[in-house]
Amino acid sequence: MDQHLFNEEVCLLGAIFQDPKAIFKVYSTLSPKDFHFEKYGFAFAAMRELAKENIQIEVFSVHDRVLKNGCNYLDKNELFAIAEGSVSSAANIEYYADMIKDNSNRRALLGLGGKIKPMCDNGEKIEDIESKIYEELNALGRKNNEPKNAAESIAALDEMIQQNKYAGLPTGINALDRRITGMRAGEMIVLAAPPSVGKTALAISIANNVIMSGKTVAFFSLEMTNAEITTRFISLNSQVNSRSIINGTLNYGDREKILAGVKRFKQTKIFIDDSSEIKVAEMRMKCSAIKCKTGSLDLVVVDYLQLIESGKKENQTIAMGDISRSLKIMAKELDVPVLCLSQLNRGYKDGKISLFNLRDSGNIEQDANQVWFISFPIDFAKENEKDKCDPKHAKLDIAKNRSGEKGVVDLQYEAEYTLFTDYDYSRLNKDLRKADADGFFPPDV
Q: CATH no. for residue 390?
């Protein structure tokens, strides 16, 4: 018999017998399956059920429930011995629970090794084996969420009001932040557009604003390489044309700017992963590793949703629904906003994009807390009106926002730096300025 495991499990049960209310301290964090000795797992399960039903936890009620649940090898006398002979204090119950949970995880890891060997022997793909490992490790890392005292949320809200802060993480684009009040932790935000319209550029612009404020970002690029993404960050930080960097056609002034931009960028906390085949479970593990390494994680960017591996053979819509739900769960468990890029289908005209146009939508619309669509008015203008359009003018349509305003935000795109910023209304003539969807006019210039 493993004596220390026996002691911890007996001590926890004894503490509950001594003070039945103590079970609520571990009710959500500990499972009957975490117990090494099955009969004690049955006893703990019985105690949880009795507490839930508001029935007194004592030897007779626990023994009756254990028998009812199918365990006939936990003697009533043993329960009496645990209840009467225990010297454990209810004050230490969380310590016992942590030890039981820790040992449970260790047994699960040993079991994982046993699962991997036959997969290797059967010649399964390395990617599938890795995915299984990540899924199992994710399951170990998940904690059962206990309901939070409302006072905690009120305290956080009060701090936000006192410091005049946004409710969420600022994007660094003022007009957008005023609308959405920042990107909230635990939210999934979908940024959608057709190919080559600027999804990645906007995501990089927001990520850059975040890291330049001292925050930590994980950037998963399933389409572009690490070098390509890094080049874009260097371009917008140095204000040097990205094509000149790629082509090597730099003058002396450009080189000085790049050196300064690289210096700033190297001081930031951004982690770029360019794995072209990756599943959400693997993303979560990598994000958890970043959080452990740096002590923080403030934003996750995924570029883009339709390229994520699902590991399932169903049709694309069902697969995207599973991926979307997994991303939403990841955002909640990591307690960070996840900005996920998505393609649009081509069933729209004249720039009128709706939630229906999300490609292979599945549950994307349902899971997302916010959905943004980006477009350029010049792309949909009639030929005789294109000369009146500003080629740098982009519109970001906040089509869904569970926690704030919907509406359209004007952005400015500096193509040479692949950079999005707030729109400079001085670029428009007064007679061309029009009210936005809510009736607000741009400021006079």
A: 3.40.50.300
